[in-house]
Structures are given as C-alpha cells and as structure tokens.
Design brief:
Layout: H1 2-31, H2 36-66, H3 81-84, H4 86-100
Helix pairs in contact: 1-2
C-alpha cells in the first residue's frame, strides 16, 4: 500500500512540474513577442520534453530497483503455476469468503 501512495505522490508531483514548465516557457515566449497560440505550443513542446526525461529516469530507476539480484531467493519460482493463475487466486478468495458466510438454512 505504501508503494501505491508513493506512486500517486510522484505522479502528482510530476504533473505539477510539467505544468510549471509549460507555464513558465509559455510566459517567456509571450514576453519575447510570440503570439499566444505559438507561445502555448512552445510551452507544450517543452513540457513534453520534460515528460520524456522523467519517463526515462523512471525506466532507469525501475530497472535498478526491480532487477533480480544474485543471492536473493526468487519466491515466485517456488510457487506452483496453479497458485499464480487468476483461477487459483479466485479459488483462494472463495475459500476465504466461505469461512465468513453462513449458509442459509433450507427450512426457512
């Protein structure tokens, strides 16, 4: 759950940074005499370049942190294929729910 919060936090900050870059670049283009449409497109283009840079940085960080390491056991290899499939997961959930649900009595 903490990783979900971190992802949301980073995504929100990335969008804020891209918006700030777009606004700053647009304002600079307007000050230098560009018409508003071209100034917006200039800011948008710069924002896209920043987005590409952030995505590339995310790929590098993901690769470095998520790659398999020597000497660290891979727990997925020790699980059977049935445990990993969606049907296996649904079956496990059904068994868990069966413990919580009391079946209706037929005499009612």
């Amino acid at each position: 759950m903490a990783s979900d919060r971190m992802t949301s936090l980073l995504a929100g900050r990335s969008i804020t940074v891209i918006g700030a870059v777009l606004s700053t670049r647009r304002a600079a283009a307007v000050r230098s005499g560009a018409d508003p449409v071209h100034a917006f497109l200039d800011g948008y283009h710069t924002g896209l370049l920043v987005t590409i840079a952030l995505m590339a940085a995310g790929v590098v960080v993901s690769y470095l942190t998520l790659r398999p390491r020597a000497g660290v056991p891979n727990y997925v290899e020790h699980r059977s294929t049935a445990e990993i499939t969606a049907a296996g997961e649904l079956e496990a959930i059904g068994e868990s729910l069966g413990e919580l649900v009391v079946p209706a009595r037929p005499d009612r």
